[in-house]
Structures are given as structure tokens and as C-alpha cells.
Design goal:
Length: about 220
């Protein structure tokens, strides 16, 4: 299934509306990523979303909402529990200078990610197979990243404890959440203290086209 021109146009318009302009090269990469996702999804469960519009809005655009809040474009970013590559691959497509690490515990999903990285010739994009709790103990990855991100994979308190060891001092831990985050934020207060994190930003927004609410929670690592 090839991504239709209408879906690509919607992607371009929606990205523009969140101040992330996409050129022809980026749109071509998103189209090829979409097609590979659909092909692999026919034989393995990468995503429950089937239509091009759902993939455009709830995967591609949702991933790109983070860009205005990253601490720069030439940074090392770790995407924990990336699954089929969200948000890491869309961020890399839109921000070529990023160095992106994609961490995933599923061997099948890692195979898909490696294929996408090869197919799209994504330089400075590394796939890591394993559990975050184990990878964070390796000296190569401990305190090594400017930003660590996860998209609704963990409850906030758990995410702080999993993500914080990867961060440099003053690096950013980013949690991408749906509409109900207040309770998670309250229960995460003690975890943030233990993890050396301080709330640096809380941004609520609506996705283009669907109006779905997204909340981006950003914590700065203020001590190791």
C-alpha cells in the first residue's frame, strides 16, 4: 500500500500548523516509512492503526509535536520503548542533525527498525535491542544523552526512574501523554526527587485534524 498524495499533503499541512515545515525530501522519507510500516504490519503487530490518516496524525504528527521543545537539533536523543519507531524516526526525518538511538526490547520490532534505518539511509541512527533497565547500566549509555523520550510507554513515576540514568546533567526527560496526566504528575513527585529531576515544562496541545489532546511533560536533570 503506497501512501497517497492526499495523505502526504495532509501531513505537510498538519506539520506546518505545528511549525515543523517538511520539504519534498522529508515527505518522501515519510511516505517510504509509511509504506514499510503497512507492509510489515500485515504480518506482525506493529501498530493497531490501519488507515493512512490515522498513521499521519496519531503517529507522525504526534511525534513531531516535540520538536519545539527539544534542547536543539544537534543533540543525542534516546527513544525508549520506541516500538515501530515513534517518536524517534519521525524526529530524525524532520531534524536531520539529530543523533537518535532507538531502544526496543522486542526482537521483531528491532528487525523492522533496522530495515527502516537502512531503507531511508538514516545516518546517525542507532538501534538498541534490550531492556532499558539493563542498557542504562552500560557505561556507553549512562549519563550520555541530552534528551530521553518515551511516548506513553510508562507511568510517569516509572519513566523517571527508567529514563533518568541515561541523561547528562541538565539533560531533558520528556514524557508524551494523553489527556489525563494530573494524577500521574502528583504521584511522581517523590520519584522526581529521587531521580534528580525538576519540572521544566508542561505543554498541553491539540493534534491537527483530530483535535485529540496531548500533554508534553519535560523534566530537567538537575543532579546525578
Amino acid at each position: 500500500m503506497t501512501m497517497e498524495k492526499d495523505a502526504l499533503n495532509r501531513l505537510a499541512d498538519a506539520a506546518q500548523s505545528i511549525h515543523v515545515p517538511l520539504g519534498e525530501m522529508e515527505l518522501d522519507l515519510f511516505g517510504r516509512y509509511h509504506d514499510e510500516l503497512i507492509t510489515w504490519n500485515a504480518s506482525m503487530n506493529l501498530t493497531a492503526l490501519k488507515s493512512s490518516l490515522d498513521i499521519v496524525v496519531k503517529h507522525f504528527i504526534d511525534s513531531l509535536t516535540v520538536i519545539p521543545f527539544l534542547p536543539g537539533s544537534q543533540i543525542r536523543l534516546l527513544d525508549v520503548g520506541t516500538g515501530a519507531g515513534f517518536p524517534g524516526i519521525p524526529l530524525k526525518i524532520a531534524l536531520k542533525p539529530l543523533t537518535v538511538y532507538l531502544l526496543e526490547s522486542s526482537r521483531k520490532k528491532i528487525s523492522f527498525l533496522r530495515q527502516v534505518v537502512r531503507l531511508l539511509s538514516l545516518e546517525e541512527t542507532v538501534t538498541l535491542h534490550g531492556r532499558a533497565e539493563q542498557i542504562s547500566l552500560e557505561s556507553t549509555y549512562k549519563n550520555a544523552f541530552d534528551a530521553v523520550i518515551s511516548r506513553a510507554t510508562f507511568r510517569l513515576s516509572s519513566w523517571m526512574e527508567v529514563g533518568s540514568p541515561f541523561l547528562k546533567c541538565h539533560g531533558l526527560l520528556i514524557a508524551m501523554k494523553g489527556s489525563k496526566v494530573k494524577e500521574e504528575m502528583e504521584e511522581a513527585n517523590s520519584a522526581s526527587e529521587r531521580s534528580g529531576l525538576s519540572l521544566a515544562g508542561y505543554h498541553s496541545l491539540r493534534l491537527p485534524l483530530t483535535g485529540d489532546i496531548r500533554n508534553l511533560l519535560i523534566y530537567e536533570k538537575i543532579r546525578e
